[in-house]
């Protein structure tokens, strides 16, 4: 391991001469954490008020006080985005400022200090460049970046932590779709993931483990994932554990409106724009379960899956199936979006950002 470069501006980037790629079996990549060379760390105390002195350090375990806010009271946020290596060798990110803005919004809801959009994007770029040899070859996947913001300062009484740590680690991930069938969803009508006024609309770490029970039960029955309903009425479709959902009926594409209980996905937002460009009518609205059951096609979106078609859903004793395969809108949306993300399709939207 090379000595940790201590720097914040990205002028001197760590790299290993002559080693274009790390020793990774690129054809076997899934979505498991693979350790890489470096991670980025930047801190901020309540007294300082602003983040500064961010640096790349060798990837490894971190030290935390047992009374850190994140460990005791779950004061933490996460983000997820990908860097792709293009055919011409350049590496690009997809709308990283959107993740930065979402982290800022989440930090306000969770009473945390957060890095600026510029700091966030610069840190992501530095993390990608430092781990360049882990960015898969074109067509083999992406380098997944996981920014974290946590209340790292110690406390015992219930209050926002006195210090915050922003950390980014990375892991190469494979192409999610390789050999995967369309999803089979179970519509969960008892366990909830988010409530009005809660934190469902921000990427708080506290939103995820409450989902495990419903997911575990559904998977044991052969489903791929759970679809949650709104907790106030139990009748409107919200989202999966980590994906937004869309339904297609004729020329109309609908997705649940963002009203605080649904995570505003960057993929969701991008898919809405691409579908509008294809000439579809797009509606962000309340979607009763009945509309889901009557749809022609259903798909879900998220950074990890990009666009994944849903083959069928089960709601109480009803099972319905949807159109899947080559002729679907979800396939067309997937091809367009991954094309832009990987640089194979021209980016007319200005969504991509080169890092090197
Ligand atoms: C991250 C996430 C999504 C998808 O957001 P993207 O920005 O598209 O990756 C959707 N729902 C939940 C609950 C999420 O955590």
From TrEMBL:
Pathway stated in the Swiss-Prot or TrEMBL entry: Amino-acid biosynthesis; L-valine biosynthesis; L-valine from pyruvate: step 4/4; Amino-acid biosynthesis; L-isoleucine biosynthesis; L-isoleucine from 2-oxobutanoate: step 4/4; Amino-acid biosynthesis; L-leucine biosynthesis; L-leucine from 3-methyl-2-oxobutanoate: step 4/4
The reaction(s) this protein catalyses: L-isoleucine + 2-oxoglutarate = (S)-3-methyl-2-oxopentanoate + L-glutamate; L-leucine + 2-oxoglutarate = 4-methyl-2-oxopentanoate + L-glutamate; L-valine + 2-oxoglutarate = 3-methyl-2-oxobutanoate + L-glutamate
Enzyme Commission designation: 2.6.1.42
Cofactor names: pyridoxal 5'-phosphate
GO molecular function: L-isoleucine-2-oxoglutarate transaminase activity; L-leucine-2-oxoglutarate transaminase activity; L-valine-2-oxoglutarate transaminase activity
PROSITE patterns: AA_TRANSFER_CLASS_4
Keyword tags: Amino-acid biosynthesis, Aminotransferase, Branched-chain amino acid biosynthesis, Pyridoxal phosphate, Transferase, Transit peptide
Record-linked Pfam families: Aminotran_4
Transmembrane annotation, as ranges: none
Residues modified to N6-(pyridoxal phosphate)lysine: 203
A cellular component term, taken from the record's GO annotations: cytoplasm
Top-level EC class: transferase
Any one biological process term the GO annotation gives: amino acid biosynthetic process
InterPro entries: Aminotrans_IV, Aminotrans_IV_CS, Aminotransferase-like, B_amino_transII, BCAT-like_C, BCAT-like_N, BCAT_family
Membership in a protein family: Belongs to the class-IV pyridoxal-phosphate-dependent aminotransferase family.
PANTHER family membership: AMINO ACID AMINOTRANSFERASE (PTHR42825), BRANCHED-CHAIN-AMINO-ACID AMINOTRANSFERASE 7-RELATED (PTHR42825:SF28)
Name the record gives this protein: Branched-chain-amino-acid aminotransferase
């Amino acid at each position: 391991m090379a000595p940790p470069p201590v720097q914040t501006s990205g002028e001197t980037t760590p790299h290993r001469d002559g080693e274009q790629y790390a020793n990774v079996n690129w054809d076997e990549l899934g979505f498991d954490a693979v350790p890489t060379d470096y991670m980025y760390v930047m801190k901020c105390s309540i007294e300082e008020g602003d983040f500064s002195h961010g640096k790349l350090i060798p990837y490894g375990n971190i030290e935390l006080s047992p009374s850190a806010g994140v460990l005791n009271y779950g004061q933490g946020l996460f983000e997820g985005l990908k860097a792709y290596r293009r055919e011409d060798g350049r590496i690009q990110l997809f709308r990283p400022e959107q993740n930065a803005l979402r982290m800022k919004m989440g930090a306000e809801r969770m009473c945390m200090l957060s890095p600026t959009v510029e700091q966030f994007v610069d840190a992501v770029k530095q993390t990608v460049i430092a781990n360049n040899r882990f960015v898969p070859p074109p067509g083999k996947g992406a380098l997944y970046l996981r920014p974290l913001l946590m209340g790292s300062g110690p406390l015992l009484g219930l209050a926002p932590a006195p210090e915050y740590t922003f950390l980014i680690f990375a892991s190469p991930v494979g192409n999610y779709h390789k050999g995967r069938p369309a999803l089979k969803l179970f519509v969960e009508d008892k366990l909830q993931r988010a409530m009005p006024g809660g934190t469902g609309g921000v990427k708080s770490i506290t939103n995820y483990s409450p989902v495990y029970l419903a997911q575990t039960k559904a998977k044991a029955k052969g489903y791929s994932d759970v679809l949650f309903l709104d907790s106030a009425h139990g009748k409107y479709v919200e989202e999966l554990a980590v994906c937004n959902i869309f339904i297609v009926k004729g020329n109309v594409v609908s997705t649940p409106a963002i009203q605080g209980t649904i995570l505003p996905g960057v993929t969701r937002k991008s898919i809405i724009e691409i579908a509008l460009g294809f000439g579809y009518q797009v509606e962000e609205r309340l979607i009763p379960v009945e509309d889901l059951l009557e749809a022609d096609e259903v798909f879900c979106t998220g950074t990890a899956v990009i666009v994944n078609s849903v083959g069928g859903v089960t709601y109480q004793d009803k099972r319905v199936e949807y159109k899947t395969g080559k002729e679907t809108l979800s396939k067309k949306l997937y091809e367009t979006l991954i094309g832009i993300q990987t640089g194979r399709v021209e980016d007319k939207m200005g969504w991509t950002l080169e890092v090197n």
